[in-house]
Amino acid sequence: MTTATPQRESTSGLAEMPLVRGNLPNWAPWATLVGAALVGVAASMGLGLHIALAILLAMLVHSVAIYAWSRAVEGGRRATDRLVTTIVTSAFLLALVPLISVVVTVLQKGLVRFDSEFFTFSMRGIVGEGGGAYHAIIGTLIVTGLAAAISIPIGLMSAVYLVEYGRGRLAKAVTFFVDVMTGIPSIVAGLFAYALFVLFFGPGVRMGLAGAVALSVLMVPVVVRSTEEMLKLVPNELREASYALGIPKWRTVVKIVLPTAVAGIASGVTLAIARVIGETAPLLIVAGTTTALNLNPFEDSRMATLPVFSYYSYALPGVPREPYLDRAWAAALTLILIVMALNLAGRIIARLFAPRVR
Amino acid sequence: MTSLSPPGRTKAYQRPGDRIFSATATGAGITILVVLAGVAGFLLYEALPALRASPEDLPGGKNLAAYILPLAFGTLLSAMVALAIATPLAVGIALFISHYAPRKLAQGLGYVVDLLAAVPSIIFGLWGLAVLAPRSAELSVWLADNLGFIPFFAGPASATGRTMLTISLVLAVMILPIITAVSREVFLQTPRLHEEAALALGATRWEMIRVSVLPFGKSGVISAAMLGLGRALGETMAVAIILSPSGGVTFNLIGQGNPSTIAANIALQFPESSGVAVNTLIASGLALFLVTLLVNMVARYIVSRRSEFSGAN
User: Fold this and answer.
1) Which candidate from B25, B209, B267 shows the least CB-CB separation from A157?
2) What would the pLDDT profile of B17-59 be if each residue is shown by its tens digit?
3) What CATH class does B53-310 carry?
4) Looking at the complex, does the CB of residue A77 fall below 8 Å from at least one CB of chain B?
């Protein structure tokens, strides 16, 4: 450690050694920040520096200024501390840049075609202008709804197993592989669904149900994980009070444990739906795309979904390109709105109905 | 009870409802294991025709390894570069949320970073192509001119920006939330007494973090990075949209001869493929599955070991 401790020449010098270290005033970081910002503005206006480079320059000026100032007044250790604070804070701010940029870009480009026609028309017989994503939105709702119908019972019961019944190696294995399963690439889930359904329907199978199965593989572990956390929060006293009244274990779970945790479970399920509703890759493989409305997920026929619609509109546009690209961005905007709304709903449910646990 | 029960445990009376319910719950748990085994099993079954097929029937006309290996190279290269960018940043963000941000704001800021994880990958793809790629093309020209001696930036720079560099940046953004979330959890688990002891000895906040938080969280950060690696390896749509692949095998991140990745290659080829080409793609998917499975298992093993002995502190 390079510490700038005051030199101790002799014992008599000890008396003069200050007991209180120099301190920068509270406004010091803000002062250097404003100064650095001014330098950045000047550089971008005067020298025509790129805005990103100007901000980078400002951050650099701020870091150097606060480090030098603090080192002079407070010594090396405090200066390093301030430098790290600056670095860590800018790391966080840097992470916000892509988030804001994504939201702004999608809003800007998506609003062009974010109209009522987009939500009420399919692409059947449409070339060029007009048309919409009605068929894709309905497809997404069907596929995601089916996936939820498959995943929620399995996920819920697995979590009940892990918390209420699971002992020994099987429970350990399930816990471990649920965690591992959260990392399965979505495209592999799609290939799995294809490999499964191809046995029944032959090569080239594309159907809504297969998409739902693929999404379930991705959704189950998320449901298990969040439900398990919530069930663990239910106080044991509640269970014991129920047993003491002679209530069987299964009724205790159904009537006491699950209702107590229902808010957290609902929130977890909402977040799990939010996670899979934007999945593109598995649906690209097993659900395919089409221009018309398809309401039957159980037959071997293609079913459009919102992310796949967006992908194909962007990747394989017709002539002229512009209307297709506009529709792609409008679909992206719809998707991001759905996902954000689901996320918000999940958080609000968790916040509002959280059980009062010590 | 009329008589004293014998010493030792007596088994609780099991009602039919109990039996059915516990069997259902256990069945659901087993279903998960079966599905995971099924993923491996069905992929292997569908990949077999590609393994057995004669080389000239395969796409590319060479053997299976020659088809998959360049893709595996591209997958690893992009994921590694993304990891190298994302990990230090994520550790910084995690520290900011766990130890620097005001207490009341910390949870909210955590949600903000989690929102990044909520953005669907297709949107990152569209954004990367529309916004990031042109910027990265400018950057690439500069890198090729000034840092061309590093093999990664050898150039000549691609004019479109649909390069490995761009997808690595996008992947870095996409894996940032998971690395941040796991690191944050581990940092928050640091024993309070360690932190207070350091502060009581006169350590500054950074010194306290260096002597107590970072040593405690090291293995957690490693496993967080591996989880991020797993995500980056399997990411499909963003890569499929942004990258313009040409099947080269090169470390040059900014040129035009980009290797593709396994996942993106599947997404791009699968819809138009038939016959043994489909089986070949499934074989490559199986390879991807096994690699990500391995990475995730190691990461989870480290995390679970951590949680066992951190509870004792």
Assistant:
1) B25
2) 888 999 999 999 999 999 999 999 999 998 988 888 777 777 7
3) mainly alpha
4) yes
